[in-house]
TrEMBL record:
SMART domains: EAL, GGDEF, PAC, PAS. The keyword Cell wall biogenesis/degradation does not apply. PROSITE patterns: EAL (PS50883), GGDEF (PS50887), PAC (PS50113), PAS (PS50112). Keywords: Plasmid. Signal peptide: none annotated. The keyword Calcium does not apply. This is Diguanylate cyclase/phosphodiesterase (GGDEF & EAL domains) with PAS/PAC sensor(S).
Length: 827
């Protein structure tokens, strides 16, 4: 150390004012002699050690620290004093106040000349890095948090340079579109953006880049499935202090459902307007605030107002001044209580004359009870006001609207019920009443292919044909979307009802011309006939519905007449529901296991769990009988969870190289499914890699996007996913492209006719090739004969299952089978 430094230290120890200066230093400073005795400590050091200076001077670390810690510090001190090399290290300590602090300690040797001799001292300085380390940890956590938000965000966050080039895009971009991140809103965006939307996207994006204004644009993006969906991209610029743009932050949001819903609403509104504009009464609609949002064409023609002038409270300008305040008060009072409104007033016509009108309005409510506003009609009662018949006319109009279908003009269920009560007492003795329920086949496909407007037109044409087919005394009703009912009285035999059913079928199934194309519709009829007074209208409808259900399996052009006992299966189904609930509550079900064999090694690899229901007095109830009932009765959830728990519990006892496969019903797919699987694996201790969940293609038909997401969550647990009954669905290959299955199980129907079935063999060969190409395990079910086994082995399948190896066995017998299987090298 230089002389000037030594002088400073001498002054430091010899003078009180030097002590004051050192105490002002915020970092701890400690000076020790060659025996590691404390010679000096400033206030910061005393605070760190939690001792007074007078208690520390002359003492060593052994006086204040545990022996091991003091020995460690003593060794470091001696090393520095002997070598003269500086020593620095960082460690976490618990301070005197109990807090944990990160400290960087530096130790160096100094030599002091005093009276012709030299003394070696150890100077220790301590730097508190706690705040710095905490800031670093918080920064890392912030970065990890940001990355988690990006990866887990249900939408697609993205960032871009000031020039517009994409820097980063959320992982869902690739999942949604199948394109790379660079194909987002960057230079290659035309690959993913619909060709019709590219120009608008580029124009708005260029405008935002040049002005710095936020971006907000909706466009269609190609999806990995080959279709297009609507997305909304919003972005805002991040600017520096000088207002220059340093980057863009954006979010890509899937708005396809909203767009389609909006289009559907617009289409529905258009249909309503088309009907309302042709109505012989003035129709109006308000929102929840009472402001008018629509007036029909007759109102506008009558008053001379434009659609814009009549909006809000503008319609009241056409009310006679003497009545305006009273009319407005009537609407306000009705709005307050959300009750029907009825007012009479004079309305100024376009030619300046006045018409008396009666205005009737009804509150509108959404399915969740939310108030939507009012819909009403205004009737011109000028010519009849003196006779006071206007109210009757309005009531009849409202009565008619409440009892007739607005689309076809046919009576509805309410009309049928009321009319049946009126005519039932006037039916000719010794005759019968016939009810025929009609269900259109193929209407949904036409509606989806041509749009709802064309679908509505088709329903009106069906209604017209039925009107021309039935008698004037018959009652023809529309009860639902494509459900019609015919009531005929006075029939003398059931043959007349059957002939009528055939006539209705013949009339409806003649092709229709729609949108320049010929469209085919089918119809199925269920009919019920009963003598006068034997049954109510509800009972007749129920009987006809039961007959309709019996007719549906035979397809279009079929009619079935109700016979006593047809509802026996309904009663049996209800009994199964009750017994199944009891069986679940009493743990009366069983799980059997059927092995799957590896065709390459001959070893048992997996056992499929199959639920069985032994019923005293009835033997085994087939799963084909009770599984559909469980799905219908909301029992499949607890049943499926019970089977999964039993199977995992049992599989945990098996050798580690044998897995268990469990079937999932489409009804089980909800947001909690992955969490339930995770909980059961933890509860039973079964490794996730030893669990296979088998699904059928029907899982992917409805709620496809949601169910794909659930499958991905299950895969993230480490669980394998297999597609069962492969080849019996509609779009197997597209599903294989959309989701990476671990296993394909070929339906037994392709094996049963081997070796003679050439078509089945060709399908098996193709599926085996697909499995090899995609690296997916292929399994064949229903193998019962050695020659079948030889064929599937020759085609290169990986696994086989069937009675040739073993029937489904209870758990105890399965364990014995596993033991006897031993080290077999071939099945």
């Amino acid at each position: 150390m230089e002389k000037t430094q030594l002088s400073v230290w001498e002054d430091f120890f010899q003078f009180d004012h030097a002590l004051v200066i050192s105490d002002a230093v915020p970092q701890p400073i400690i000076v020790k002699d060659k025996h590691s005795r404390f010679r000096f400590l400033n206030n910061a050091a005393c605070a760190l050690l939690g001792r007074a200076r007078s208690d520390l001077i002359g003492r060593t670390d052994h006086d204040i620290l545990p022996a091991a810690e003091a020995d460690r510090i003593r060794a470091m001190d001696q090393q520095v004093l002997e070598t003269g090399e500086e020593f620095s290290f960082e460690e976490d300590i618990t301070a005197a106040d109990g807090t944990v602090r990160s400290l960087v300690t530096q130790k160096r040797r100094v030599e002091l000349a005093s009276g012709g001799s030299k003394e070696m001292l150890l100077v220790v300085t301590i730097l508190d890095m706690t705040a710095c380390r905490r800031a670093e940890a918080e920064l890392r956590a912030s970065e990890e948090h940001y990355r988690s938000l990006i990866e887990l965000h249900p939408q697609v966050p993205w960032t871009a340079r000031p020039s517009g080039e994409v820097l980063e895009v959320g992982p869902r971009w690739n999942e949604i579109t199948g394109f790379e991140a660079t194909d987002a809103l960057g230079t290659e965006r035309a690959k993913a953006v619909h060709a019709d939307d590219v120009e608008n996207v580029e124009r708005l994006w260029s405008s935002s880049l040049s002005t710095g204004d936020p971006l907000d644009v909706e466009f269609r993006l190609a999806t990995a499935e080959g279709s297009h969906r609507w997305f909304r991209s919003r972005a805002a610029a991040r600017k520096a202090e000088d207002d220059t743009i340093v980057g863009w932050y954006g979010l890509l949001e899937d708005v396809d459902d909203r767009r389609r819903a909006l289009e559907s609403v617009k289409e529905s509104e258009a249909r309503f307007r088309a009907i309302a504009d042709d109505a012989p009464v003035m129709i109006w609609v308000t929102d929840e605030s009472g402001a008018a949002t629509y007036h029909s064409r007759l109102w506008l023609e009558t008053t001379g107002q434009t659609a814009e002038q009549s909006r809000g409270l503008g319609w009241a300008d056409a009310v006679h001044p003497e009545k305006r305040q009273e009319v407005e008060a009537g609407f306000v009072a009705a709005m307050r209580d959300r009750k029907p409104v009825r007012v009479e007033y004079r309305l100024r016509r376009a030619d300046g004359t006045w018409a008396w009108v009666i205005d009737l309005g009804q509150p509108r409510f959404a399915s969740d009870g939310r108030f939507l506003g009012y819909v009403g009609i205004a009737l011109d009662i000028t010519d009849r006001r003196k006779a006071e018949v206007e109210r009757l006319l309005a009531q009849k109009q409202m009565h008619h609207m409440a009892r007739h279908d607005a689309l076809t003009g046919l009576p509805n269920w309410q009309f049928l019920r009321e009319e049946f009560e009126c005519i039932s007492d006037n039916i000719v003795p010794d005759t019968k009443i016939a009810i025929l329920c009609l269900d259109l086949e193929g209407f949904k496909a036409v509606n989806e292919a041509y749009g709802r407007a064309s679908g509505d037109l088709l329903l009106r044409r069906v209604a017209d044909r039925l009107r021309n087919c039935v008698k004037q005394s018959d009652i023809l009703c529309r009860l639902g979307s494509d459900d019609f009912v015919v009531l005929r009285t006075g029939i003398k035999s059931n043959d007349e009802a059957r002939n009528l059913a055939q006539q209705l079928i013949d009339v409806v199934e003649v092709p229709y011309e729609l949108a320049g194309s010929h469209v085919d519709l089918g119809v199925i009829v269920g009919l019920a006939a009963a003598p006068k007074g034997d049954q109510s209208i509800d009972e007749l409808i129920q009987a006809a519905d039961i007959a309709l259900d019996q007719a549906k399996p035979d397809g279009r052009g079929t009619y079935v007449e109700y016979e006593p006992g047809m509802d026996t299966h309904l009663q049996a189904k209800q009994q199964i529901k009750v017994l199944l609930r009891q069986a679940l509550a009493n743990n009366a079900l069983e799980v059997h296991y059927q092995p799957l064999v590896n065709l390459h090694t001959g070893r048992l690899t997996t056992c499929e769990a199959l639920v069985r229901w032994p019923q005293p007095g009835r033997g085994q109830i087939s799963p084909a009988e009770f599984i559909p009932v469980a799905e219908e009765a909301d029992l499949i959830g607890p049943l499926g969870e019970w089977v999964l728990r039993q199977a995992c519990t049992e599989a945990a006892k098996w050798p580690l190289d044998i897995s268990v496969a469990v079937n999932l019903s489409p009804v089980q797919f909800d947001r909690r499914l992955a969490a339930t699987v995770c909980d059961i694996l933890k509860e039973t201790g079964l490794n996730a890699s030893r669990l296979e969940l088998e699904i059928t293609e029907s899982v992917l038909l409805d709620e496809c996007d949601r169910n794909f997401q659930i499958l991905k969550e299950i895969r993230q647990l480490g669980v394998k996913v297999a597609i069962d009954d492969f080849g019996t669905g509609y779009s197997s290959l597209s599903y294989l492209r959309s989701f990476r299955f671990d296993k394909i199980k070929i339906d037994r129907s392709f094996v049963s006719d081997l070796p003679a079935g050439k078509e089945s063999l060709a399908i098996l060969r193709a599926v085996a090739g697909i499995g090899r190409t995609l690296g997916i395990t292929t399994t064949v079910e229903g193998v019962e004969a050695p020659d079948q086994l030889e064929i599937i082995k020759a085609e290169g399948f990986d696994e086989a299952q069937g009675y040739l190896f073993s029937r489904p066995l209870p758990a105890a017998q399965l364990l014995k089978l596993m033991q006897s299987w031993g080290d077999k090298s071939s099945p």
